[in-house]
Amino acid sequence: MRACIPLALAVLCGLAWAEDHKESEPFPQPEEETEEALASNLYSAPTSCQGRCYEAFDKHHKCHCNARCQEFGNCCKDFESLCSDREGFSYSSDAITKEEIQSISEKIYRADTNKAQKEDIVLNRQNRISPSETRDQVDHCPKPLFTYVNEKLFSKPTYAAFINLLNNYQRATGHGEYFSAQQLAEQDTFLREIMKTAVMKELYSFLHHQNRYGSEQEFVDDLKNMWFGLYSRGKEEGDSSGFEHVFSGEVKKGKVTGFHNWIRFYLQEKEGLVDYYSHIFDGPWDSYPDVLAMQFNWDGYYKEVGSAFIGSSPEFEFALYSLCFIARPGKVCQLSLGGYPLAIRTYSWDSPTYGNGKKYIATAYIVSST
């Protein structure tokens, strides 16, 4: 893996990579969520906290649902009923600190014994381009990204359960998702298998200690809702979910959105459906998991900047994205992995909600590193 080199035009491509160990400034990737979908999917009840619990303060709102609205006396009338007992997210009185997030992310990093070893993956990164070239849609790499992957990894229970989920979705938004009994069972199998791992045990123990969940079953139920619960990105009801978007990938308005997983990339590249074009960043880690920000074509549709962990186990990615969504929903989440800082950005889907006003995951992705 190569040392991190600063990219002067990172704003244009949506990723910030800094040259020193100062806290890096995050820049959202050109995801459809940040550009149009979230803006068009804002709650439709400005005098209610439905779908708005603990959102950021916005002076344009008639009433508020942020963590300090009671202090200022400007909460919406239903704040107490909808938000006061809300589970799973940070409250101002017991918020998870940046230092605590960095500490637990290091524990998760060390606990990932299912990750790939150096000899398990051979990458052919080929040409690195500048951020100003990411929109050009030029194939700078004649060969595949993955020269070799030890597919014995995929026989491990969490990998096998994860892979079984990837083909349960229609990638085009606007087409409703309908799951068979077997496909629903595959979701439960995946959650059951990852909860057996040290990675997810570390995460649950941390969140339980932080009073986010009273039991492991409550935690698992919430993970299933936030990741696999369906909502609408297009015209069709229930055409998307956080898991589909982040791990499997989607196509909306002629562009690839989401698709932040190396296993999915490898399997699609192996089938001739993904054409690797270039990369703009290669992480500083000298072992797996590493991070790569790349450009590629997915069966006729282009991904301008796709950041992904490389060589991580499914539970590792699932744990970090979940941690950030629970501790820093809709915000940048500063992690530490093997001594190197990394930032993840999550977004929530505001309507509909589940439970007592909880929000689904819209997207989660790596935004910066140093």
UniProtKB/TrEMBL annotation:
Matches recorded under SMART domains: SO
Required co-factors: Mn(2+)
Protein name: Uridylate-specific endoribonuclease
Location(s), subcellular: Secreted
Gene: ENDOU
Domain SMB: 45-87
Catalytic activity: ribonucleotidyl-uridine-RNA = a 5'-end dephospho-uridine-RNA + a 3'-end 2',3'-cyclophospho-ribonucleotide-RNA
Alphabetic keyword roster: Disulfide bond, Endonuclease, Hydrolase, Lyase, Manganese, Metal-binding, Nuclease, Repeat, RNA-binding, Secreted, Signal
EC number: 4.6.1.-
One Pfam family linked to the record: XendoU
A GO cellular component entry from the record: extracellular region
Name of the top EC class for this enzyme: lyase
Any Gene Ontology biological process: immune response
InterPro entries in UniProt: ENDOU, EndoU-like, EndoU_C, SMB_chordata, Somatomedin_B-like_dom_sf, Somatomedin_B_dom
Signal peptide coordinates: 1-18
Gene3D superfamilies per record: 4.10.410.20
Known partners and oligomeric status: Monomer.
